[in-house]
Amino acid sequence: MANFAKNKLGVKSDKLGIEKLRSTQDDILIETISEKIKEVLEIRYKSDPKRYKNADNVIPELNAALRAVHFTNLLEMYVMMGDTEKFLDGATAFELTETTNGYRILNLDNVAHKISLWSIDGIEKELSDQDKIQRIKIEYIRKHLNEFELN
């Protein structure tokens, strides 16, 4: 919550380094990374708005692991709200590619395949066990901590 308040006030939160990642409990690890990604996107955008046009244009500068967390979380939010079709219809080619790649990075190839088929029922079925999906993400993050460091 403190980092959320800092972000809203335009104050940069602490670095998300290896030790911070190691000590962050599993139940808040993905959320912690996601919030830091949002902060980094906003800060980079605000540092050069003419170059980026909007915060989404900063995303390609993130590494593949960070993009995987960002885009898979985005799709999962839409699925949980019952708006899978809205995500698929509104996503750019870049967003769809990154989302598909994100699930492949996490070795969730079935989800990636369902996205490529635009199978709404298939996507929703594959993502229905969110506890399992979150465990897989956490396991990936724990094995690749250095890829999730953010200033």
Quick gist of this model?
The chain has ten helices and no strands. It has 151 residues and is mostly helical.
The total count of strands amounts to: 0
Shape: globular
Q: What distance lies between the first and last C-alpha atoms, to the nearest angstrom?
A: 18 Å
Number of domains in the coordinates?
1
Q: What is the percent of helical residues?
A: 55-70%
Taking all Cα atoms into account, the compactness measure Rg is: 16 Å
Please tally the helical runs, counting DSSP H or I stretches of 4 or more residues.
10
Largest sheet at a glance? none
Structural class: mainly alpha
Topology as a string of helices (H) and strands (E): HHHHHHHHHH
Average pLDDT for all residues: 92
Uncertain regions spanning at least 5 consecutive residues: none
How much of the polypeptide forms β-strand, as a percent range? Answer: under 5%
